[in-house]
Design goal:
Length: 181
Amino acid sequence: MTPLLSGDHDTIHLFALELPEDELWSFVTEDPETGEFALRDALGVESLDESQVEGAVTEDLHGIGLSGFLTEGIGVDEALISDDRARIDALSGGVVIVKGGAFASSDIALHSRPPLRHVGTYRLPDAPSTLEQLTSESARRTGGETAEPVAASPQSNRLTRRLIVAIVVLIVLGLLVGVLA
């Protein structure tokens, strides 16, 4: 049997949770006072990013169903769950969805222990490429072409010097007034 690995950021693990529904939320969240985290322990991992975990009660997914929640809500590729759709939608009670980003790396072995039961592992589709041909003048330049630097005009150089002298004079005057006061 191939071990279940955490997978990369685009991996989605679905688990059935065999606990009463009222225990779902305490199972999928870390206790801030004690640090106990039942889901982390049931997966057999040292760390788990709670923000990458979702719990749901299948009966609360009216109209959309669990398979719809996975595809429309989470973004799992429809084609990847087509073979499992009937089995996924037949689940009842609590389920836990753990994204690959919940783990410290992509090669962590997961050991789902009761009350968790692994249902399936799916992938998010690759993001579509949005590269389009750039049409601006600067995008058309090729090779080592670079714009020539713009030289400062003699007038702006004089203005800069005058401002520096004025600032220095103000500082000196301020020091003199402070010493004389």
